[in-house]
Design goal:
With 195 residues, the chain is α/β, with parallel strands linked by helices. It has a single domain, classed as Rossmann fold (3-Layer(aba) Sandwich). It is built from 6 helices and 6 strands, in the order E-H-E-E-H-E-H-H-E-H-E-H. Bound molecules: guanosine-5'-diphosphate (GDP). Guanosine-5'-diphosphate (GDP) binds next to helix 1. The site of guanosine-5'-diphosphate (GDP) has 20 residues, from helix 1.
Length: 195
């Protein structure tokens, strides 16, 4: 085990009761407790995951989905490296709300940060209201990473977050490479200037 050499801040949004808190509990502590009450305020958990030859720390921020907390959420978006938008596959209105969440993210961050779209509660297939194809289509339209999952059964609770983390790491690696390249270029220039 080695200390994490980078940390990414990921914000979790979506309407109330889609399962954000349950998903985080599953991801960070690997357990599910039915009947968790709707989130009030904001809480976070940190999970360190191995990636390539290093350790990446993921700081996952839970937010309340209620409209009255939107302003808090907007503030939090500002320093986010990535965002997870969750809906409930058994509640169509939570899927309809995804577009509004995407608008809020874009307004607050002003740039293209990686977004993961998650359709939760696949264990409750018989009450499904949102077909898989609809989620997939929306994700394609807005260039989002897309998975369906179940915080309850544990299905797809790790893979989607690791996928997002990998994209964040690759993005950061590219920026680092560019910086090194620029430094080398400017060193060469100053060296030539002296000659
Ligand atoms: P939040 O308001 O988005 O944080 O949602 P919660 O995590 O508080 O979950 C709301 C309700 O949905 C709770 O009763 C959970 O037990 C339930 N729930 C969360 N995830 C799942 C899931 O994957 N499957 C099922 N069947 N219920 C879930």
């Amino acid at each position: 085990y080695s200390a994490p050499d980078r940390l990414f801040k990921i914000i979790f949004v979506g309407n109330s009761s889609v399962g954000k808190t349950s998903f985080l509990q599953r991801f960070c502590e690997d357990h599910f407790s039915a009947g968790t009450s709707a989130t009030v305020g904001i809480d976070y958990c940190v999970k360190t995951v191995p990636m390539d030859n290093s350790q990446v720390a993921l700081q996952l921020w839970d937010t309340a989905g209620q409209e009255r907390y939107r302003s808090i959420t907007k503030q939090f978006f500002r320093k986010a490296d990535g965002v997870i938008v969750m809906y409930d596959i058994t509640a169509k209105d939570t899927f309809t709300a995804v577009k509004q969440w995407l608008v809020s993210i874009e307004e607050a961050t002003g740039e293209n940060i990686p977004v993961l779209l998650l359709g939760n509660k696949t264990d409750n297939e018989k009450e499904r209201e949102v077909p898989y194809g609809l989620g997939e289509h929306l994700a394609k339209e807005y260039s989002l990473i897309f998975y369906e999952c179940s915080a309850c059964s544990g299905h797809n609770t790790r893979e989607p977050v690791l996928h997002l983390a990998r994209i964040l790491k690759e993005q950061e690696d590219k920026v680092k490479e560019k910086t090194v390249q620029l430094q080398q270029d400017s060193k060469k220039k100053s060296c030539c200037a002296r000659l």
